[in-house]
Amino acid sequence: MTFTNHRNAFLKIFNATARYHHRHKVFEDFVSCAAIALHNGVMHDAELEKQYLSIIAGYEKQDAIQMAELLGHVVMALDEERCDFLGSVFMELELGDKYRGQFFTPWDVSRMMASLQLSGIDALMQGKDFITLQEPASGAGCMVIAFAEEFAQRGYTVSEQLWVSVTDVDPLAANMSYIQLSLCGIAAEVVTGNALTLERRRTLYTPLHYTARWAAKLGSANQRAA
């Protein structure tokens, strides 16, 4: 299946899933469960598992199965093409809420902005093993994914040379970021909180953060800087 096939399949399955719930609730619940599944597949957390089971308990068996199918299409779509898949389908499903500011940056705009940000990357990388990036209002992670794609196009290895810290005040947006950064192979911490007040209500690390031992790399870099 092509990227477009996966997108169309996602939309079709989503629209047929749990018609007894509001569409926004189904999307939020899907995103919450998908984020927990990806996290607990690498680093099990009992509290997250309880949250997952509590959410799924509100769905009939067939709808729970279809949620797993939705995640499968997200995985395969992002494997075909790195982009803001979840943000784009969220907008296409007309789930944006102008009062919560849930309007996501178009992919082409994000790529252009990332290209501008990386204009001096070669000089910045001299003498460095890796760089870190902070995104204080991550949305679905579009800007970070675009940055990583541009970074890779300049010959750098995203999994080894880029670590990201992203924050969003909205749990839905933070979970969307977590899913997409995880599936795009980006080492990151994803904070649900407020970057202005430094509030951190929840912090999740992507699978690559664990498997590539980024905690040790970041610790070593901090020791050298000190």
From TrEMBL:
Q: Which GO terms describe its molecular function?
A: methyltransferase activity
Domain DNA methylase adenine-specific per the UniProt entry, residue ranges: 98-197
In terms of Pfam families, this protein maps to: N6_Mtase
Question: Entry's InterPro entries?
Answer: DNA_methylase_A-5, SAM-dependent_MTases_sf
Superkingdom to which the source organism belongs: Bacteria
Q: Which GO terms describe its biological process?
A: methylation
Alphabetically ordered keywords of this record: Methyltransferase, Transferase
**Family to which this protein belongs:** Belongs to the N(4)/N(6)-methyltransferase family.
Please state what the protein is called. N-6 DNA methylase
